[in-house]
Amino acid sequence: MRMSGVVLPTVRRVLTVSLQAEVAAATTARLVLWLSCLCVADVSALQWQDNSVSYTYSNQFTEPGIREKVAKHIVEYVHVNSYRYGNNLFRAKVMRSDKKDPADSDDKGATEVYVVYRHFLSFEAVSGKSIGFGPISDIGLTAGFDLNYKNNAFNPRKRLFVAGPTLAFDVPRRSLLRLSLLAAKEFNHCGLPPCQVPGNSTDYEFDTFPLLFAGWRFPLRLGDVASKVEGFAAKGYRRGTDYVGNKLAHETLVRIAWLFDIGALAGGQRNALFAGIGYEYWRNKYGASDVPGTDTDAPALQLKWHF
Predict the structure, then answer these.
(1) Cβ distance 29 to 19 under 8 Å?
(2) How confident is the model at residue 163 (pLDDT cuts 50, 70, 90)?
(3) Which domains does the chain have, with CATH numbers?
C-alpha cells in the first residue's frame, strides 16, 4: 500500500497521548518518531509497504501485583515494508490503564509506551540462490529490539535486544508464517522500595535467554465476507533471578485477532478498515510467578485501519 501524507501526523498524535501523561516519556517518544522517519525515508527502495493504526479495548487485562482485572485503551501504529534483502517491522503502542493500575504521581490510570523494531534479512535474497526446501520458502536472520516506559510505581524502562535465525514458510499470497529462535537480552529498571534495599538492584541486567517466536497472518473468506486471522506466540525460557533475587519462570505470550473487512462490507475500499475480536493469553508475565496478576486471559475488541 502507498504511504499516505497523514502517516507522520498520525504517529505524532499517538505519541502525544503519552507525552501529556508523563513528561519523562519524551525520550522514548522522540526515538519512536525518529525510527518512523527512517522506515519511510527512501520510498523508492521499497518493494511494498503497509501502514496501520489500531484501537483495542478490554477490561480483562492483568498486571503483576494487582488482584483485580484492569481495563486498557490501546492505540498502536504499525509500519511494515519490504526491500531487496528483507523487510522491516516497526510498532509504536500507547496503552492507557484504568485506576486499578494507577500512575505513580496521581490516582489516574498509568500510561505505557511500547516500541518494537524487527529486521528480517533474507539469506536467499543476499545469496541470489534458492535455499527453500519442503514447506520452507526462505531462511534468514531476525534482529531487533523492544523499548518501553510506564509511569507507574514500578517505573520500568525495558530495553530488550534479540537476534537469531528465522524460517519463512511457503504460504499462499497475502499470508505469512514465520518461526524464529532468538537470543534475548533484557535490561530494565525497578522503582519499587524492595528494589532499593541494599543487595538488590533498581537497574538490572537479566540473564540472556532463548526466545521462541512465531508470527502469522492468514486471509479467511466466509462466503462474501473477507476476514483475516493474525497474531503471534512467544515462549521465553527465562533464566536467573529478578531485581530482588526471585527465580524467573518461563514466560508464554499469545495474541491473536480475527478481523473482518467492514470497509468492503459497507461498499468502500477493500483491505482498509477492519473490525473484530482479539484474545491475549499470558502466563508468568515478565517472568514473575506466585503473585497476583501474572496470568492473563483477555478477550478484546479491535478496530484497525490500513493506509
Answers:
(1) yes
(2) very high
(3) 7-306 (2.40.230.20)
